Amino acid sequence: MSSNQSGAQALNDANCPLHLLKPNYPFEYQAPTLDKLKALALKVFKFIDLNLDCKLQDSHGESVDLNTLNAQDLTNLKLETGSFRADSYEAGILYVSLFLLSENLKDPCFKNKACTILDFVEKMTSLFKEAQKAPFFKALLDPKNLDDCGTMGLSLLYKEKLKTSLNPALVDIAEDFILHKEHRLQDGTLARNRPYKDTLWLDDLTMSIPFLCMKGQRDHHDDLIHEALKQFLSYHQRMFNEELKLYCHGFVEHATSHPCFAWGRSNGWVMLSLTYLLASLKKDSAEFAKLSQIFKVFCESLLAKQGLKGLWHQLLNKEQSFEESSASCLFAYGFLWGVNFGLLDPKAFAPAAITAFNALTSKIDEEGKLHGTCVGTGLGMDPAFY
Question: I need a labelling partner for 288 at 20 to 30 A (CA). Which of 75, 108, 172, 275 fits?
């Protein structure tokens, strides 16, 4: 009778039912336990904690105490933030994730980190406003595009649930920019003037819709939620490809041809935006019925595009493009959200999400860094660009 190196009996067709023999998957193939989820979250958090910080230094490189700082002491201040900017749109998404981790894993360390950084940002921007100059964090006080304020504004709304804001004006600035200052098409659709005049980027859904939904819910202003819905449907009309059942990353309003590049992460931004919008609408409304059908069709298409190794590709309809981690994170999240919200069949979508999660786990190194994520991407008009 054969045995393995540990001395245990080797399983084979003669001594074990075939369906109990374990295939040789490239990653763990089972639902993670809560303990494993916590351990993985803490591993990634350790990397974040080491590489994201905010410390002030004076012109001599000496540390400056934020608690004793006033508007007259801002000359020649320098900011040390580690490897990541503390006020980027990526940081905004990160802070939201930390708040949600604390809520779901019942561990305060994640939200405490987010609150510490955001307290610093709020304190400094409040002083800058008083002094009428901003050595850093300028974009939060005077945004030039949605990237400057949308997700950071969202993270500040999450923080407000836990503690008093040190600079509530930042949320008002974000709202004012989204509603009144960002460029729009003639019909009111949010747009950019790059790389061409009147260009729509899927990215701008996440830079606006989650903030509008959460702010509308906080203030009981349905008009903000209706604006978010209007924006989504306008993008959907122009950018949803009926053949692929996926979204094109960009759309140039006055072009005569509209090539479709279904960039993974931009479709992930659609997924994230849909979760906020659906959660904000009344379930018995016609708007919810329409949007939930859009969500289901989109998720069915994504389910069919999941790669053999559990992840999705950089260009979703191009299997020869590389497997991309950030999009896969967003799709797995959207699938599980849809299951928990009662919109998706758990028998089909939960296994797909768990498989993606396990595949992503294999992409995290010992330091807590996630590999396989594409760089910040502009908008291109050919597949090689992506």
Answer: 172
